[in-house]
Amino acid sequence: SMDGFDVKKYQGRWYELGFHDWTQFSEVYDTTLDIELSADGQRWVDDFAVKGPAPLAAPKSWDKSPVANGAHYFLYGKVDPTKPGVLQESGFGLTFPNYIVDVQKDARGEYTQALQFQCLERGGVRIFEGINFLSRTPDNSEEQMAQLHTRATKAGLDPYGATPEQVHVVPHTAKGAPDVDNAWQRMWNAIGLPKLLALAEGAMHSQAEDILNPVN
Predict the structure, then answer these.
(1) Furthest-apart CA atoms within the chain: distance in Å
(2) What CA–CA distance (Å, rounded) separates 136 from 49?
(3) Contact 10, 137 (CB under 8 A)
(4) Cα–Cα distance measured from residue 206 to residue 186, given in angstroms and rounded to the nearest whole number
């Protein structure tokens, strides 16, 4: 656990600048996490938004992707006030501990950067591990990434994949960039794929609302 961790300050939008996770498609971009805490502070919902593949990773096909304009996945967490910075999170068919191992603060004490670590073992075998480099801004400059790597090393995450060679850097487009609009996207629209994604996202969001606002 992390001494002095304030989960209320962890709410809001985070930009994923880099990650280590062998289960995640490495060519994603514009990845964000929007975290909302329940009124009683005991649960949270993480709206995980992603686009892919990234233009530089797939220059000939990125704009043809059915998720070129993004997709949303919702993860659900339980907050244990006796273990600051440790959350039991569920998503993608798994429930796992999500450890916030480091936060950077500004002069007002607000959280500006964070490191998340997840590890799941079964029968002594590590079946999942994940590390997320997060920031309140999409700036993934070499300087900012170096700061995150330095703190990850200090936190003991290098053996789990936090070294520069093992972390995928997530590109982010300029703020206010328009959605992709071409024949491929119009085809996805014509066959109703965005509506199907919206229905799935809506169902997940309704479940999220039920978790955040349970009916007694």
Answers:
(1) 53
(2) 15
(3) no
(4) 28
pLDDT tens digits, residue range 55-91?
999 999 999 999 999 988 888 888 888 888 998 888 7
CB distance 162 to 149 below 8 Å: yes
Predicted TM-score (pTM) of the model is 0.87
> How many of the other CB atoms lie within 10 Å of CB of 166?
14
d(CA 105, CA 151): 13
pLDDT tens by residue, 166-189: 999 999 998 888 999 999 999 988
Q: What angle (nearest 5°) sits at the alpha carbon of residue 186, between those of residues 185 and 192?
A: 95
Percent helix, strand and coil across the chain, each to the nearest 5? 25, 35, 40
CB-based contacts of 4, cutoff 8 Å, min separation 6: 84
Contact 41, 187 (CB under 8 A): no
Helices assigned H by DSSP within the chain:
142-154, 183-190, 193-212
C-alpha separations of 184 from 63, 65, 70, 126 in Å = 8, 8, 14, 40
